[in-house]
What does this fold into?
Amino acid sequence: MQLNTLSQLAIYSLIVGFIITFVVITGFAYTTLLERKLLARLQHRVGPNRAGYIPIPSRNGKERRILGGFMQPAADAVKLFFKEDMTPMMVDKWVYFLAPIITVMPAIFILAVIPWAGNVPYITPENRDYFAIAPGINVGVLFILAITSISVYGVVLAGWSSNSKYAVLGGIRASAQMISYELAMGLTVLVPIMLANSMDLGEIVAAQKGMWYLFLQPIAALVFWIAALAELQRAPFDLLEAEQELSAGFTVEYSSMRFGMFFLAEYMKMIVFCALFAVFFLGGYRGPFVDQVPALGFLYTGLKIFLGLCVMIWIRASLPRFRYDQLMSFGWKVLLPLSVLNFMIVAVMIVLVEEGVFAF
Amino acid sequence: MIGEIIKGLGTTLKHLFQPPVTIQYPEVKRPVRYRFKGRHELKRYDNGLEKCIGCALCAAACPADAIFVEASENTDEERYSPGERYASTYEINMLRCIFCGYCEDACPTEAIVLESNYELSFYDRASSIYTKEMLIVDVPVNGKPTPQQVEPGQFNRSIPDMADPK
It folds into this structure.
């Protein structure tokens, strides 16, 4: 596609951004269904199977039902929209209204730099190397780290403005947790940056042509995954919404779609972090035959995100929740030193390889 | 620690491939246990006569005072049950009933039995009163519906000599 002027590029990005955001929001809806279904199967249950099914008449007159529950997200959405939107007394109104929006926006912002596919003919602009909303941001990783930090604000403000002790405690826990694990994650993200010698996510993906960084740097991948789980407040790090202690953490005073927005942010960030994990360690959109048919990149990205989500749900079904002091000591005493050590070893190794001490 | 985590993940993964134990309730019903105490049923003899003789011992035994029985006279032209009397009104208030089964124990003719139906839901309090028509079982295949016209002297005893009078 020929795009010459800046305004043409801007309109193009706007359209692509709209489509991707829409697709990912639909993906969010079906991620909730995936979570409920998979979690149910891991616990010998069936999961939601009533809202929407495809009846298949079989020979003995008894109809078989497949894809049971595929309309469940729509039912949930309708339910959330039609619930009463309550504002508790004595809340800080402006902050209370803004907090869900501040939480959702970073999750959507990160979508801008994720490379979804390679240079697909007809849809990728000609002077760009890969397909994304904002292709070719040369500080993509920095952008991601900056944006993920913003999402802490939404959580803290929601907790603070709710005028509830549970919400405040949940917000404080969340902020402390996110700040602690962001450090380890930032140091881990340096490893792919150094290996690819670029902060451009497209180039990080391109550098994994020979071998995924997962196999080159399993420790970095593991630390990134754990830090991402903590960053997402997923089990086993979901102690800011520990039901037994805090009822629902910072979302306790929110209802209706305003609660739905926190929900949306959580699952959007799950998708986004799975995409980032794919980009940093699983070769992004790269896969078999992707050089011949670049459009396959969408499929591979989607597949890797799906796998990541499944693993997250699997972990949630398996591991018990951390205690707060365990969480902190694990973050600061295990993950942070491990990532620093790993980062230093990788740096030294890269210099040694470049100097020709090792052949690689 | 990592070994245990991997072990735990392996356990859950193993369970992913086992069939779910859920019973899809409205379509598939789980059979109740042999001694389950569900909704009462008023039984009949094989010839169609009602077992209940309207003695109201069940109402007397009921700790929740849920049962109301009113008896009327049997005649050989219009016979509902063996013996002198039958229950012309038999009502159980299902909101009061505690499903203890004392009525079952008190019944001299084994007419009232707590059976397996547990789907007792209604929209208003008036519907909680289950009448005799709702409680009584269907007429058996070879039996005749009540009231029956019978030969005099055949069903003089309230508790028949045989287990199942023909």
In short: Residues 17 and 23 of chain A are 10 Å apart (CA to CA). Strands of chain A lie at 54-57, 63-66. Chain A has one domain: 87-355. The two ends of chain A are 39 Å apart (CA to CA).
